[in-house]
Amino acid sequence: MTATPQSLDMLQIAAAAADAKGGEDLIALDVSEPLPLVDIFLLVTGRSERNVAAIADEIEEKLLEAGHKRLRREGRQESRWVLLDFGDLVAHVFHEQERVFYGLERLWKDCPVVPIQLPARAAAED
């Protein structure tokens, strides 16, 4: 089993949203083999609780605008690890300390990495 075209589209929307709000270390994992109800995990790091919340809010907003239904959201109040479940795509937005501590990359290391295409950013001004 592999990620569906719809889940790949959702990934690109979520990744662009995360990137726009300063999300770092974006990694997408194809978890469709071990988890039949989910195709992709998107892992993102934020630098502070405020940044984590902004990233999560932007991902949620952009996926909702694209017509995808959110099934569940957890962790928004503390903003240390926000989980956004959109069915085929689950986004995990971590504060850097939580990302290291929970190590989802290690837990899911046997799952293939899905390439992420981020929009080109404008050249930095001097």
TrEMBL record:
Localization (cell): Cytoplasm
Record keyword Protein biosynthesis present: no
The organism's place on the tree of life at top rank: Bacteria
Keywords: Cytoplasm, Repressor, Translation regulation
InterPro entries associated with the record: Iojap/RsfS/C7orf30, NT_sf
Keyword Transferase: no
Record's function text: Functions as a ribosomal silencing factor. Interacts with ribosomal protein uL14 (rplN), blocking formation of intersubunit bridge B8. Prevents association of the 30S and 50S ribosomal subunits and the formation of functional ribosomes, thus repressing translation.
PANTHER family recorded: IOJAP SUPERFAMILY ORTHOLOG, MITOCHONDRIAL ASSEMBLY OF RIBOSOMAL LARGE SUBUNIT PROTEIN 1
Subunit structure of this chain's protein: Interacts with ribosomal protein uL14 (rplN).
Family stated for the protein in its record: Belongs to the Iojap/RsfS family.
Protein name as catalogued: Ribosomal silencing factor RsfS
Natural source organism: Microbacterium jejuense
Gene behind the chain: rsfS
